[in-house]
Write a structure and sequence with these properties.
17% strand; alpha/beta; 375 residues
Length: 375
């Protein structure tokens, strides 16, 4: 660590500190130096010039590396590759320093390095354009599926939280899904959507697991994973899953809130879920209850607290909703179609008089259906 009034423009840290790191790397026979900050391409090149024969990786570079290891689905691989290419594009020059321009100006003085560099950049930009198009198509498919669910009156819940908070274990426990669970960072990159029954199996919602957040999530990843993170933006309710046993719990909550603000999803209804409560002693449980009185304490691993969580989800989804039983004539089919987009259909039966529907409807939308209410 180094105390500076502002980062050094050329090397981020001071040149003396860079020399110190070079000596330490040689002493320890290190072949890699990681900076827990984002370096500019020129800072990275300059540091590699000083700390020679050692690879320099910044915060974004190593996070992208971890993401690349854990991307399994076609969409996940495309998203990570797009983020990596956008990260590497301005850093290409350092790879061709041995073939750089041989002179400045004049005919015949262009070196082969610049030609190769321009070729690589052009190919990389074409690949970026192609990946962007493919991801846009996947985004449209995801949007179509989402609209279909909305038309059917199925509401959506998205799990968000710091990486390794136990979101995948929780979605498995709630829905019986088989999402990969590992005790490591970013084990799950691919969005998973499963059905969840609420309200004594009469109400059904879909629950989506999303990529774990971290402090200062790289912008390349936010941009590349935009289609996956749209599940968060379009959800009716967010379950903010927190590792209750983590010593930096408050900081992780703040980091997730910052990412939600960046995604413009910070105004969504939320339930704070304190997971891994089985790892917390009684004294700390009481403290957490006082600090976060509205949170639901669960252990996805042991299956405790899940009924309380289902009730909390059901209650939150009902807020501002009124349950009505309606008998709508077959001649007014447009009203039924509108109900599917407005409310949550709990049952639908066809009778001789018309369609008998039980629906949870926003209070402000009940007016036009008042004449069809079954008393």
């Amino acid at each position: 660590m180094q105390r500076l009034e502002k980062p050094n423009v050329r090397t981020f840290i001071g040149p003396g500190k860079a020399e110190e790191i070079m000596q330490l790397a040689r002493t320890e026979h290190a072949d890699l130096v990681i900076f827990d900050v984002d370096l500019t391409p020129s800072q990275q090149r300059n540091l590699e010039g000083i700390i020679s024969k050692v690879k320099i990786i910044d915060r974004t570079g190593i996070i992208l590396d971890i993401f690349a290891q854990h991307a399994h689905s076609a969409e996940g691989k495309l998203q990570v590759e797009l983020a990596q290419l956008n990260y590497l594009l301005p850093r290409l020059r350092g790879m061709w320093q041995h073939l750089e321009r041989q002179g400045v100006g004049g005919v015949g003085l262009r070196g082969p390095g610049e030609t190769q560099l321009e070729t690589d950049k052009r190919l990389m930009r074409k690949r970026i354009q192609r990946l962007t198009r493919e991801l846009e198509e996947l985004k449209q498919n995801r949007s179509t599926q989402r609209k279909k669910r909305q038309k059917q009156g199925v509401h959506s819940v998205a799990l968000v939280g710091y990486t390794n908070a136990g979101k995948s274990t929780l979605i498995n426990a709630l829905t019986g899904a088989d999402v990969l669970v590992e005790n490591k960072l970013f084990a799950t990159l691919d969005s998973t959507t499963r059905k969840l029954n609420l309200d004594h199996h009469r109400r059904e919602v879909v629950v989506s697991d999303t990529v774990g957040f971290i402090k200062k999530l790289p912008h390349q990843l936010v941009a590349a994973f935009r289609s996956t993170l749209d599940e968060v933006r379009m959800a009716d309710l967010l379950l903010h899953v927190v590792d209750a046993s983590h010593p930096q719990l408050e900081g992780q909550i703040k980091a997730v809130e910052d990412v939600l603000e960046e995604l413009e999803a910070d105004d969504k209804p939320q339930i704070l879920v304190l997971n891994k409560i089985d790892l917390v002693n009684k004294t700390d449980r009481l403290r957490l209850s006082k600090v976060y009185p509205d949170a639901v304490q669960v252990s996805a691993e042991e299956g405790s607290g899940l009924d309380a969580l289902r009730e909390a989800i059901d209650e939150t989804m009902r807020k501002g909703m009124v349950r009505l039983r309606l008998l709508i004539p077959y001649t007014r089919g447009e009203l039924i179609q509108r109900l599917y987009s407005l409310g949550l259909i709990l049952s639908e039966n066809h009778t001789a008089e018309g369609t008998d529907i039980i629906v949870d409807l926003p209070e402000e939308s009940t007016g036009e259906y008042s004449s069809f209410i079954v008393r």
